[in-house]
Design brief:
- Helix content is about 15%, strand content about 40%.
- The strands form two sheets. A five-stranded mixed beta sheet has the order 1-7-8-5-6. A three-stranded antiparallel beta sheet has the order 2-3-4, with no helix packed on it.
- The protein has helices spanning about 65-75, 80-90, and strands at about 10-15, 25, 30-35, 40-45, 50-55, 55-60, 95-105, 110-120.
- It is built from two helices and eight strands.
- By secondary structure, it is mostly beta strands.
- The chain binds zinc ion.
- Zinc ion binds next to loops.
Length: about 120
């Protein structure tokens, strides 16, 4: 298994946008990839976004991520932690995982948990 580049960098951003809504910006190009929308979340991917999970549900997968998952499904790999799963997918320290959990306000208070992976190794 490829593991020369180390583990993905995993950052938990607790109170991000807590007063309004959890927002996620791409650290590479600065594009806002997530905002609280009419139906819990609005996802607007940029080329660096590998995946975005909303409340543990797959909401966005890049073609690259999907290809990695398909390749992985041919093998049987146990994974306890999500970071281990990312390693199994072949990601390394060039993947930045941002996790944000916050209460937003959209007519009534909504709490969402978002986890997004940005591929820093991808130049686009
Ligand atoms: Zn980007």
């Amino acid at each position: 298994m490829k593991q020369k580049g180390g583990y993905p960098v995993h950052v938990v951003v607790g109170s991000m946008g807590a007063k309004t809504s959890p927002l996620l910006y791409c650290p590479i190009c600065g594009k806002q990839v997530f905002a609280l929308g009419d139906e819990r979340g609005k996802i607007d991917p940029c080329p660096h976004l590998a995946f975005l999970l909303l409340d543990d549900t797959d909401c966005y997968e890049s073609d690259d991520y999907r290809t990695r998952e398909q390749n992985l499904q041919a093998q049987v790999i146990e994974h306890d932690e999500f970071d281990d799963y990312l390693i199994a997918l072949g990601y390394d320290a060039s993947l930045l995982v941002l996790e944000a959990s916050a209460t937003g306000y959209k007519e009534e208070p909504v709490t969402v948990a978002v986890m997004a992976g940005f591929d820093m190794g991808k130049v686009a």
